[in-house]
């Protein structure tokens, strides 16, 4: 679907991501009824703050954005800073930390 139509719909955007090298993790979950977008970093490295913020700004409309973040230090820091920057720009953004390790 066109992300502009999704933004205009007022629905909450759901974004996740992490380092590359775990494919199809994250990107494989993008689609209707799942993630709105995935943002990936370099191999085994968190996506940059700039990349996360760009993704948030691209897909977030009036419904806001939920970030689903893995419990990895780099992801927590970069997604967290990007979320705070997006909030400063007037967007509704919330973040939940999840653990994928058993």
UniProtKB/TrEMBL annotation:
Kindly give the SUPFAM superfamilies that the UniProt entry links to this protein: DAK1/DegV-like
What terms describe the molecular function in GO for this protein? Answer: glycerone kinase activity
Coiled-coil positions are none
Q: Offer one example of a GO biological process linked to this entry.
A: glycerol catabolic process
Where does the record place the DhaK domain?
Answer: 1-102
GO CC entries: cytosol
Query: Which InterPro entries does this entry report, sorted A to Z?
Result: DhaK_dom, Dihydroxyacetone_Kinase
Q: PANTHER family in the record, alphabetically? A: TRIOKINASE/FMN CYCLASE, TRIOKINASE_FMN CYCLASE
What is the protein's name according to its record?
Answer: DhaK domain-containing protein
Q: What is the scientific name of the source organism?
A: Haptolina brevifila
């Amino acid at each position: 679907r066109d992300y502009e139509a999704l933004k205009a719909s007022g629905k909450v955007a759901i974004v996740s991501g992490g380092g590359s090298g775990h494919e199809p993790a994250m990107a494989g979950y993008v689609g209707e009824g799942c993630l709105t977008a995935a943002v990936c970093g370099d191999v085994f490295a968190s996506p940059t703050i700039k990349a996360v913020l760009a993704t948030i700004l691209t897909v977030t409309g009036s419904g806001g954005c939920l970030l689903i973040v893995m419990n990895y230090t780099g992801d927590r820091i970069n997604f967290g800073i990007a979320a705070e920057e997006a909030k400063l720009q007037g967007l509704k953004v919330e973040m939940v930390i999840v653990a994928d390790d058993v």
